[in-house]
Write a structure and sequence with these properties.
Chain A: Pfam families: COMM_domain, COMMD9_HN. The complex is a heterodimer. Chain A is α+β, with helices and mostly antiparallel strands. Helix content of chain A is 51%, strand content 22%. In chain B, strand 2 and strand 3 form a beta hairpin. By secondary structure, chain B is an alpha+beta fold. Classes of the chains: A alpha+beta, B alpha+beta.
Chain lengths: 140, 176
């Protein structure tokens, strides 16, 4: 029962985003032991940002990008042409499925994608536009 | 086959080679040619098939127009016609080479990319969140099917992704 009550208290604090000692202190009932109240508040305050970050990290989301690697190859020949020198990019994205669904064993899959130079240029254009939109939003 | 008919036929052939999707048109032009010159279509098709083998083989083995000409003469074509064909080959080979390169195997080719970004307002754990997320939808060709892949990135991840892609572009450009 004690653990349950503590758990509820911390969840409430994290949910509401309470950051000041006074706000937390007034959650306790009137005749609560003073020193214990102060000690609990102190511990909660210490941990609150860590708890918030973890809650945010484990909230539901689309699959998340965990890592990304790339390499550039030069294609020199194929079954339809004997000699060529075409550079191409291989991009590997490590994607983690929704953390909330996987519990303690998150599934990470690796997706390898090939991009020609034209595709890469188009993609960079798109990414540039995203960056411009982001700075427009940030500057508002 | 007179040289005039031969050049007309060569033209038809090369037009097909440079636009391999226009099969209908090619077949129509062939039968027109047959009727105009009073040749029966069956044997004409066979001849055309064997002639088509030459440019395809030339591409595979990266032959010069000289070698194409020599090949044709070896096959029994007159020197004049062989030279004409070799000339046409020289003119058309960049286009044909580009087509062949375009057909080269690509693994999981990226076809399209869409995105949206927004702000997470709240969740069941946190009443007010206010963090920005970026969602990418990548359309990938796996074999002959298209597959959609959805990925979410945080802002720092996005900036480092952009940075890495710019490095890739520099690398690709240095090889072109």
């Amino acid at each position: 029962q004690l653990v349950f009550a503590l758990h509820n208290l911390t969840r409430h604090v994290v949910y509401r985003g309470l950051t000041r000692a006074e706000d937390i202190l007034c959650l306790f009932p009137e005749n609560f032991h003073q020193n214990l109240k102060n000690l609990l508040t102190k511990i909660i305050l210490e941990n609150i940002s860590a708890w918030r970050n973890e809650a945010q990290a484990s909230q539901i989301s689309l699959p998340r990008l965990v890592d990304m690697d790339w390499r550039v190859d030069i294609k020199t020949s194929s079954d339809s042409i004997a000699r060529m020198a075409v550079p191409t990019c291989l991009l590997q994205l490590k994607i983690q499925e929704d953390a909330a669904l996987c519990g303690n064993n998150p599934v990470v899959s690796a997706l390898t994608v090939e991009l020609s130079k034209e595709t890469l240029d188009t993609m960079l254009e798109g990414l540039g536009r995203i960056r411009d939109q982001l700075s427009a939003v940030a500057n508002k | 086959v007179s040289s005039q008919q031969f050049s007309a036929l060569t033209e038809v052939l090369f037009r097909f080679l440079t636009e391999p999707k226009e099969v209908e048109r090619f077949l129509t032009q062939l039968s027109d040619f047959a009727t105009m010159n009073k040749i029966s279509l069956g044997p004409l098709k066979n001849i055309v098939k064997s002639i088509l083998l030459v440019p395809n083989g030339a591409l595979k083995r990266n032959l010069s127009s000289e070698q194409v000409r020599a090949d044709f003469i070896a096959l029994g074509l007159s020197e004049e016609k062989a030279s004409y064909f070799a000339e046409q080959w020289k003119v058309n080979s960049p286009t044909l080479a580009r087509l062949a390169v375009g057909q080269t195997l690509m693994i999981n080719q990226l076809i399209d990319m869409e995105w949206k970004f927004g702000v997470t307002a709240g969740s069941s754990e946190l009443e007010k969140v206010g963090s920005i997320f970026l969602q990418l939808k990548l359309v990938i060709k796996k074999g002959s099917q298209l597959e959609n892949v959805y990925v979410e990135l945080t802002l720092p991840q996005f900036y480092s992704f952009l940075h890495e892609m710019e490095r890739v572009k520099t690398s690709l450009e240095s090889f072109s």
